[in-house]
Structures are given as C-alpha cells and as structure tokens.
C-alpha cells in the first residue's frame, strides 16, 4: 500500500476511533456514585489497533472536544471542570495507558498472553494516574478512601472490558493479517 494511502487510512481510523470513544463514553450506567461506561474498552481498542501517533491524536481530539464544552465525557460530562476536576486524572491517564499498552505488547510479542497483559498494564496505568490525581486534588482523603472510590468499584467491570477488548483485538488482528 502506498504511504499516502496508509496515512489516509490511519487518519480516517483515528477520526472513527474518536467517534467510538465519544459513543462509548456517553453510554454509561450509574452505579451508586460511580458511572460504568465502555470508555476504557474504546481506549484499549484505540491503543491496540492504531499506531501510537494516530492513537494519541484521536485522544487529543476527544479531550479537546470535551474541554471546549461538547458533552463527550462519561455521563454527557463536558468542560474544563470535568477535565481538571477530581477524576480528570483518569482522562489524562489515557495517554500513558496507551503508551504502556503499546510498549508492553511490543516487549511481550509473540509470547502467548501479550495482548491481555498489555491491556491489563494499560488499565493499571490508568488507575494509577487517576488515583494519584484524585489524591492530589483531595489531599485530605485517606489512601484507602481514594482506592475504594476510584478503583475498587471498577475492578470487575474493567476486567470484563479487558476481556471484550482482547476478543475484539484478536479478531481485528486476524482481519489485518488477511488484508495485508
């Protein structure tokens, strides 16, 4: 495939992934004070399919749209208040999460389990960034409170998102191999 078409293909996929990320973020289920969305699943797919520059570009567009006031974040949230609020660390944590996912996958490939381990690593990276941000934002909150608010309610749903992402990525990698 000619380089110009390959770049156009990735730019198109980047735009489509921005839309998928918006859709997966907007569709959320309230669970007490928490919201469960497919946002992480979209991030894992983004990091697992697109090359790093295009994945990060898609994420920048998503965060910019939300910062400008479009209701693209979980639960139709929008604005700088969401982005720089107590849970903004999870949104900014998507950058190192995608980087971690791609690095782990490159380091672990072609060993079995490379895909799930890279997705788990990305999720843990996102947890770390989000929990640290939350704790810095609310320093009076004890560490256990931060963990019980920011991470524990999401462990099982995120494990299911990792599983779903890995299943989709396995199918997509098969399609990519047969198309090349």
What does this structure look like?
With 180 residues, the protein is mainly α. The chain has a single domain, classed as Arp2/3 complex 21 kDa subunit ARPC3, CATH 1.10.1760. The chain has nine helices and two strands. Strand 1 and strand 2 form a beta hairpin. Helix 1 packs antiparallel against helix 2, helix 1 packs across helix 3 and helix 2 packs antiparallel against helix 3. 34% of the residues are buried.
Distance between the termini: 9 Å
Label the structural class.
Answer: mainly alpha
Give the low-pLDDT segments: none
Biggest sheet statistics? 2 strands, antiparallel
Radius of gyration: 16 Å
CATH architecture: Orthogonal Bundle
Give the tally of β-strands: 2
Quick check: average pLDDT?
90
What is the number of helical segments per DSSP (H or I, 4+ residues)?
A: 9
Inertia-based shape: globular
Chain-wise SSE layout:
Blueprint: H1 3-26, E1 28-31, E2 34-37, H2 39-49, H3 52-67, H4 80-83, H5 88-92, H6 94-108, H7 114-137, H8 143-150, H9 155-179
């Amino acid at each position: 495939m000619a380089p110009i078409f390959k770049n156009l293909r990735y730019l198109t996929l980047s735009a489509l992934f921005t839309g998928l990320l918006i859709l997966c973020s907007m569709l959320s289920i309230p669970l007490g004070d928490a919201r469960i969305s497919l946002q992480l699943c979209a991030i894992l797919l983004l990091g697992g399919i697109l090359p790093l520059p295009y994945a990060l570009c898609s994420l920048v567009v998503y965060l910019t749209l939300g910062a400008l006031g479009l209701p693209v974040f979980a639960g139709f949230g929008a604005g700088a208040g969401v982005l720089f609020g107590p849970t903004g660390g999870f949104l900014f944590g998507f950058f190192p999460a995608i980087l971690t996912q791609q690095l782990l996958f490159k380091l672990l490939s072609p060993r079995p389990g490379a895909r799930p381990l890279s997705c788990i690593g990305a999720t843990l990276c996102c947890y770390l960034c989000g929990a640290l941000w939350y704790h810095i934002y609310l320093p009076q909150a004890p560490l256990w409170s931060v963990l019980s608010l920011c991470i524990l309610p999401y462990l099982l749903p995120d494990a299911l998102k990792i599983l779903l992402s890995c299943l989709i990525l396995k199918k997509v990698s098969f399609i990519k191999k047969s198309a090349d």
